């Protein structure tokens, strides 16, 4: 990413690798990087990461790893080896598992790939957590998990924009990658905890993961350019901004 690239990672949630690469090539001049998620990783496979990375922008392999530490380490090494700049793993897997992911990512990329710890999915709210027997609000659970992510040596964290202040309060060194981004007027679909691109940036997000508002648009390039223009017009936060976390 150059200093002029907007902090947008486009989620290439499309059916096949050919379409993903074609879309990424069209969007590359207008965004900062790309996310390759489960649909592609379980379909055409990790080679999709390599094909998209060949375009010269960072690729987030959103594998959401969650297994035995040795299995997670091997999977992270594989994804790092094909060109992922970041690999995700569920923070709920614990510090040892995350440490395995960190070790695998480093080994597979000679230190160029980092791990992002996934805290609470943006599709989950307080009601969904309660249904699972978790008697914590999303904010308080994110706070606990972010500490584990930090202790395990991960590069960053995946959280909603609503918890960016929480992350700043407990582990501000972590790179903050934010999904659940919806421009004004866009449908939330299956997301629960969302924010507009400007809101997320004002709360000190480092990267915005944006999928359907760009990928499903009638003109994806125009959609990406429009969101990028909104971000350029957003006032940059000061170091004192965005510190109050949403623990409710």
Q: How would you describe what is shown here?
A:
By secondary structure, the chain is of the alpha/beta class. The chain has a single domain, classed as Aldolase class I (TIM Barrel). Helices cover 41% and strands 15% of the residues. The chain contains eleven helices and eight strands. Strands 1-2-3-4-5-6-7-8 form an eight-stranded parallel barrel, surrounded by four helices. α4 (69-81) runs parallel beside α5 (95-109) and α7 (138-151) runs parallel beside α8 (164-171). The model is unreliable at 238-243 (pLDDT under 50).
Total of helices: 11
CATH fold assignment: TIM Barrel
Regions with little confidence, pLDDT below 50 for 5+ residues: 238-243
Name the CATH superfamily assignment: Aldolase class I
Mean pLDDT: 91
Secondary structural class: alpha/beta
- What sort of overall outline do the alpha carbons produce when their principal axes are compared? globular
**Estimated share of beta-strand residues:** 5-15%
Number of domains as seen in the coordinates: 1
Helix content class: 40-55%
Question: How far do the termini sit from each other?
Answer: 35 Å
């Amino acid at each position: 990413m150059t200093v002029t690239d907007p902090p947008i990672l486009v989620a290439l949630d499309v059916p096949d690798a050919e379409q993903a690469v074609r879309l990424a090539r069209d969007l590359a001049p207008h965004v900062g990087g790309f996310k390759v998620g489960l649909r592609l990783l379980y379909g055409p496979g990790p080679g999709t990461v390599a094909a998209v990375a060949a375009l010269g922008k960072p690729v987030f392999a959103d594998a959401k790893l969650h297994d035995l530490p040795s299995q997670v380490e091997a999977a992270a090494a594989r994804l790092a080896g094909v060109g992922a700049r970041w690999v995700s793993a569920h923070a709920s897997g614990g510090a040892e598992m995350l440490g395995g992911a960190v070790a695998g990512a480093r080994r597979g990329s000679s230190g160029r790939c980092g791990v992002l710890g996934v805290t609470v999915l943006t599709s989950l709210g307080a009601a969904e957590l309660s249904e699972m027997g978790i008697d914590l609000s999303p904010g308080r659970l994110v706070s606990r998990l972010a500490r584990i992510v930090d202790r395990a040596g991960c590069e960053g964290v995946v959280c909603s924009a609503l918890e960016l202040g929480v992350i700043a309060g407990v582990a501000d060194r972590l790179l903050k990658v934010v999904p659940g981004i919806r421009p004004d007027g866009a449908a939330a679909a299956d997301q629960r905890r969302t924010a507009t691109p400007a809101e997320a940036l004002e709360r000190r997000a480092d990267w915005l993961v944006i999928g359907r508002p760009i990928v499903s648009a009638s003109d994806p390039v125009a959609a990406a350019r429009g969101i990028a223009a909104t971000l350029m017009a957003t006032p940059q936060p000061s170091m004192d901004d965005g510190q109050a976390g949403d623990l409710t």
